[in-house]
Task: inverse folding
């Protein structure tokens, strides 16, 4: 007799309740808010305060704190504390293994204490020093690449409730973002120290005429090193945030496809930026020229950029007067256009209009990128395409326009700038014009 085939039923797919959906939306909102903060702020103490505020509101805590770890003394120092007695709490120092925070720092594992009066690990020094009454604590280690940076705590769930597993998961994600912020702060401090050393060396070398060239090179290296890290930080923070959302299963359907596409775009941006800088410094790269439809090329180039700049109050207008073919290296020229659009967006601090046009000018393709920003001063227009010119921007390597000019010239084309400042008339604007051979 033939053996019967065992039939197994697939478990029914679990559907989310309205309460779970609302909680999930709140988690995603919190994570995206924290990720944007990490990618846009440089004052790490202010950043940590905003992160803690968002975390406290999300899990419904009365107070919160971050204790930073000092490896030399093996101690935790409560640097940022929010709540009624937050200022007094910032003076507290605990040893690794001491109290709830010290235990979490030592074990590197989250700890949810629902009633501190029944837990011998609770260190009462904090309550005595601050006058605050602690009932419950949820503590999470803050780490980066396996290194302990501190401990994040939220205290007393509002309305007398206890912190949940969902609260812990949310706080773990926030702790990961706090780790990025702390690591960025360390990188910035190291670079600032190195940059300060380079400036000091620069001044000393200026006293000796024979060493002037060496001093200028050191200053340039310091400037590039400092600004490249800034340019890399934002895409890296975005990529990590998107990956955390995917890892935690917080996205479904089209959201997964959209976030995956954004991750690929950010990684491509990182690779392209570093490759362009290396190619420019070596003076060696090869163009892959082919016939490209201008209309489709501009549409695909501007689609990802639009989502980024429109969140900053910038309207993107596209005027495709020529959509036929032109010979170009699409990858290289795409980076030229995105760099020019990025510069325009950076200069329009209070929003404005960014217009991209294409038209045929004889046997040439003409592309214009115009912004409604404050304009480029007359004395800067002649040097704008030289390396390390970044006037009007708080970040950037100062190589973008120099690289763009070389790429356009290698296509057999030309690039120049036209502008009008407030002194020259109203309205103010800047227009970058590219002309490339059609054939």
Result:
């Amino acid at each position: 007799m033939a053996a019967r085939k065992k039939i197994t039923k697939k478990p029914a797919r679990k559907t989310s309740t309205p309460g779970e959906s609302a909680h999930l939306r709140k988690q995603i909102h919190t994570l995206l808010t924290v990720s944007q903060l990490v990618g846009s702020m440089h004052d790490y103490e202010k950043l940590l305060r905003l992160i803690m505020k968002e975390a406290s509101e999300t899990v419904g805590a009365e107070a919160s704190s971050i204790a930073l770890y000092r490896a030399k003394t093996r101690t935790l120092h409560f640097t940022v504390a929010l709540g009624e007695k937050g200022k007094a709490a910032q003076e507290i120092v605990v040893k690794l293994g001491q109290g709830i925070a010290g235990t979490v720092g030592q074990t590197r594992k989250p700890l949810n204490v629902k009633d501190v009066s029944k837990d011998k690990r609770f260190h009462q020094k904090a309550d005595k020093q601050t006058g605050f009454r602690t009932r419950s604590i949820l503590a999470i280690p803050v780490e980066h690449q396996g290194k302990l940076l501190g401990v994040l705590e939220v205290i007393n769930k509002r309305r007398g409730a206890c912190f949940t597993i969902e609260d812990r998961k949310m706080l773990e994600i926030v702790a990961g973002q706090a780790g990025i912020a702390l690591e960025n702060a360390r990188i910035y401090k190291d670079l600032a120290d190195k940059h300060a050393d380079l400036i000091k060396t620069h001044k000393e070398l200026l006293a000796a005429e024979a060493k002037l060239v060496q001093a200028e090179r050191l200053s340039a290296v310091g400037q590039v090193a400092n600004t490249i890290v800034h340019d890399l930080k934002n895409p890296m923070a975005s990529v990590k945030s998107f990956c955390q959302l995917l890892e935690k299963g917080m996205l479904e359907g089209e959201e997964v496809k959209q976030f995956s596409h954004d991750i690929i775009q950010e990684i491509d941006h990182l690779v392209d930026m570093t490759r362009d800088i290396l190619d420019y410094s070596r003076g060696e790269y090869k163009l892959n020229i082919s016939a490209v439809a201008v209309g489709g090329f501009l549409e695909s180039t501007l689609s990802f950029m639009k989502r980024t700049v429109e969140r900053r109050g910038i309207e993107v207008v596209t005027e495709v007067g020529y959509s036929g073919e032109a010979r170009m290296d699409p990858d290289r020229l795409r980076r030229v256009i995105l760099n020019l659009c990025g510069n325009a967006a950076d200069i329009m601090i209070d929003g404005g209009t960014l217009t991209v046009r294409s038209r045929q000018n004889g046997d040439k393709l003409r592309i214009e990128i115009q912004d409604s920003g404050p304009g480029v001063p007359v004395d800067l227009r002649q040097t704008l395409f030289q390396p390390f010119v970044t006037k009007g921007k708080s970040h950037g390597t100062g190589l973008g326009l120099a690289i763009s000019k070389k790429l356009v010239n290698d296509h057999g084309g030309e690039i120049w700038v036209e502008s009008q400042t407030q002194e020259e008339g109203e309205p103010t604007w800047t227009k970058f014009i590219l002309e490339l051979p059609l054939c």
About this structure: Residues 165-206 form the longest helix (42 residues).
